[in-house]
Amino acid sequence: YDPEDFLTCLSTCYGDPNAEQKALGRLESMTQGNQESLATFIPRFEKELADGGGAVWSD
After folding, report:
1. CA–CA separation, 16 vs 19, rounded Å?
2. Which domain of life does the UniProt lineage start with (predicted)?
């Protein structure tokens, strides 16, 4: 039994096949709110970037 295999199976069966595209859409329209601090915005931005596959983008 391998936990990674189990998580992969769950993701394949129940995960959103369009999750990356949805994250890219949210990333494209994301803005920092007027009353939102940078410290609050950056984690939201980084999550969408990671969910959108930004780790493999070329510079």
Report:
1. 5
2. Eukaryota
Could you give the CA distance from residue 38 to residue 4 in angstroms, rounded to a whole number? 34
Structure tokens given for 23: 């994250």
- Residue 58 CB contacts under 8 Å (≥ 6 apart), including other chains: none
Residue 19 amino acid letter: A
Contacts of 54 (CB under 8 A, 6+ apart): 27
Integer Cα distance of 59 and 53 in angstroms: 13
